[in-house]
Automatic annotation (TrEMBL):
Keyword presence, Isomerase: yes
Species assigned in the record: Novosphingobium arvoryzae
Swiss-Prot/TrEMBL keywords: Isomerase
Active site, renumbered: C65, H98
InterPro entries recorded: RpiB, RpiB_LacA_LacB, RpiB_LacA_LacB_sf
Annotated protein name in UniProt: Ribose 5-phosphate isomerase B
Length: 150
């Protein structure tokens, strides 16, 4: 799978660990930066990640910052992205199964390396259930859609 990963300065160490983990699993990883721990603005990296997932260059995205909150908001500004802030594997699996999330966000100050790896495993190994969830997911990118609630 082609996976994009990006962070801010607060999550650069977690990003490096997860990048190597994903490569070790056999995935193609686009590391969108940053490359140093110098202060950067998380929206810039969230927007980069969203753009390449939206255009199909990457199939999934992993966004990281200190809390995961700011970068998840930035990623979700792109209407093609469904980025879920996750902290444990169940939320990562449900993000895929019920919401067809194409990106996850995590906080480096809140989530340890092993838990982050478990979240990634759940995210990458869970399929979208479709069915009653499909029309709801469609509404996420198209707020004017009505009906089809099941």
């Amino acid at each position: 799978m082609r996976i994009a990963i990006a962070s801010d300065h607060a999550a650069i160490d977690l990003k490096a660990e997860l990048r190597e983990y994903l490569i070790g699993l056999g995935h193609q990883v686009a590391d969108l930066g940053p490359d140093t721990a110098d202060r950067v603005d998380y929206p810039d990296y969230g927007y980069k990640l969203a753009a390449i997932v939206a255009d199909g260059t990457a199939e999934r995205g992993v966004a990281l910052c200190g809390s995961g909150i700011g970068i998840s908001i930035a990623v979700n500004r792109n209407p093609a992205l469904r980025c879920a802030l996750v902290s444990e594997p169940l939320s990562a699996a449900l993000a895929r199964e019920h919401n067809d999330a194409n990106a996850i966000a995590m906080g480096a100050r809140l989530t340890g390396v092993d838990m982050a790896k478990a979240c990634i495993d759940a995210f990458l190994n869970t399929d979208f259930a479709g069915g009653r969830h499909g029309p709801r997911v469609d509404k996420l990118s198209n707020p004017d859609l009505e009906g089809a609630t099941a």
